[in-house]
């Protein structure tokens, strides 16, 4: 159980920091984030702060102990965000070097989710 708990908190902590860190430029609508989201991907600028705030809330939800239903929704939302970001990058024709690294973040997300459930079962 102790090993499961340690692995869970390492994966969740790293993923939570990643997701919250990447949401800050969206919330403040930084020019670099706007260049990617609006110019390259073609999304409307008003979507950036919304997605940024949603990612911060999701990151907080997976980092705070308890609240299992909120945590489940947060994992789902963060998975959709990551899938959407990867798909959007692939859809505009970016080479694998621009989106291949996302596999690392998928591994952290799914690893965190797997160990969260393993921790709940007490295994």
Describe this structure in words.
With 123 residues, this protein is mostly helical. The protein has one domain. The chain contains 6 helices and no strands. Helix 1 packs across helix 6, helix 3 crosses helix 4 and helix 4 packs antiparallel against helix 6. The longest helix is centred in the N-terminal third of the chain and has 26 residues. It is globular and about 45 Å long.
Q: Percent helix among the residues?
A: over 70%
Silhouette: globular
**Could you say how many structural domains there are in total?**
1
Mean pLDDT across every amino acid position: 93
Biggest sheet overview: none
β content, as a range? Answer: under 5%
Number of strand segments = 0
Span of the ends, CA to CA: 6 Å
Number of helices: 6
List the helices and strands in order: HHHHHH
Q: Cα-atom Rg, whole angstroms?
A: 15 Å
Quaternary status of these chains?
Answer: single chain
- Low-pLDDT runs of 5+ residues are none
In terms of structural class, how would the helical and strand content be classed? mainly alpha
């Amino acid at each position: 159980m102790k090993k499961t708990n340690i692995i869970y908190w390492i994966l969740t902590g790293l993923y939570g920091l990643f997701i919250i860190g990447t949401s800050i430029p969206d919330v403040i609508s930084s020019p670099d984030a706007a260049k990617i989201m609006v110019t390259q991907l073609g999304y409307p600028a008003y979507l950036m702060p919304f997605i940024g705030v949603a990612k911060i809330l999701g990151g907080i939800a997976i980092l705070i102990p308890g609240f299992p239903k909120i945590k489940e929704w947060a994992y789902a939302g963060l998975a959709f965000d990551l899938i959407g970001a990867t798909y959007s990058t692939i859809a505009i024709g970016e080479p694998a070097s621009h989106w291949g690294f996302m596999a690392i973040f998928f591994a952290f997300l799914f690893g965190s989710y797997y160990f969260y459930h393993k921790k709940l079962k007490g295994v």
